[in-house]
Amino acid sequence: MASVTGPLPQLLADTAGLRWTEQLHGLARTRLDELARAHGGLDDLLRAATVRPDVASQVAAAFTVGETWFQRIGAQLEALPELLAGRRHVRAWSAGCSTGEEAYALAAAFTRQTVEVLGTDLNSESVRRAREGRYGAWSFRGVPPEQVRRSFERRGDLFEVRADLRRRVRFAVHNLTTPAPLRDLDVIACRNVTIYFTPAAAGQVYTHLARALAPGGVLLLAPSDPRPPAHLGLVVERSGGTQVLRRPAFAAAPGPAVSGAPGAGMKGAGPSGVGVSGAGVSGVAPVTPGAAVPDAPRDPELPEARRAAYEAPHDPQAQLALAWALRRAGQDGRAERQARHTLTLLDAHGDSWLAARVRAGCLRLLDGAGEG
């Protein structure tokens, strides 16, 4: 694989802060091959990328993950009107919006307040599709039909964003490792994005996000995302069965980015990497060591198991560990699918002791037994 990737890992890290993995390379292969053909081959493409920022951005955009849907971590969206009840007008940013579902969902979440949403993504093709605002039924999984009818019009097999919702949302291409395009934002959603970044880049991105929040503003992350550095001063707030991060109402703007992993080497940082709140912040629960990021499952091992499985896509032990973590978190359907996926990896391990042990673990899970 090294001969195939060559300078790609460093190019991705330098251009967009992305962390190269075999799994990510597999997802990007089709788009990368198209770019390579347009430049006469992969080597010529990479040479061009070293001297042309626009080509480097195209290569990095090929490695962006476009998986998204309207009801993703829906409890956070449902909690927003209450969390921001004191604001008549809400300014929001969907950072890493892919094809736009999250940006439109943010705008639709507010029915009693006026709202304006900016959606940004590194991938210009994703931004183009977001502006079109046409989606298939799969993007609406988990969304009640009446909500779909309220914000979308049926056009054959597709659903098109209604004009009143479209007016509240705009889109732009943006690299998250650069300063935020807006300031004084009431809510920023950056979910399932920083998991793909290098530790140093994730810390830099979190600094940009925290500085873009208005005092009292809310940051939405996903369970698998790394924790923001403690020095940013964000605190965990619980609402409606979910969790978000909030910038305290009277906090000073966060300082400049600190190199290194998010939450690493920060004075006063707990294991969670999120700052510990002092007393006197109304409605905000102090962060305790090991505090979960927004919408974390009850089992604190799940985010770590997801991260380990992502970093080692061909390791059956890491994949099985994720299956059991999903089971303990009550996500039985996902756990069973993960176990079946793990079984497909065992052919490469023959009749080894490892293969036998992992196979037995998968079968126990699929049979509904305990881990043993």
TrEMBL record:
Span of domain CheR-type methyltransferase = 10-225
Which GO terms fall under biological process for this protein? Answer: methylation
Signal peptide limits: none
Q: Name one GO molecular function term.
A: S-adenosylmethionine-dependent methyltransferase activity
List, alphabetically, the PROSITE patterns matched.
CHER
Q: What keywords are annotated for this sequence in UniProt? A: Methyltransferase, S-adenosyl-L-methionine, Transferase
InterPro entries given in the database record: Bact_Chemotaxis_MeTrfase (IPR050903), CheR_C (IPR022642), CheR_MeTrfase (IPR000780), SAM-dependent_MTases_sf (IPR029063)
What SMART domains does UniProt report for this protein, alphabetically?
A: MeTrc
User: What is this protein called in UniProt?
Assistant: CheR-type methyltransferase domain-containing protein
Q: Which organism is it from?
A: Deinococcus indicus
Q: Which lineage do the record's taxonomy fields give for this organism? A: Bacteria, Thermotogati, Deinococcota, Deinococci, Deinococcales
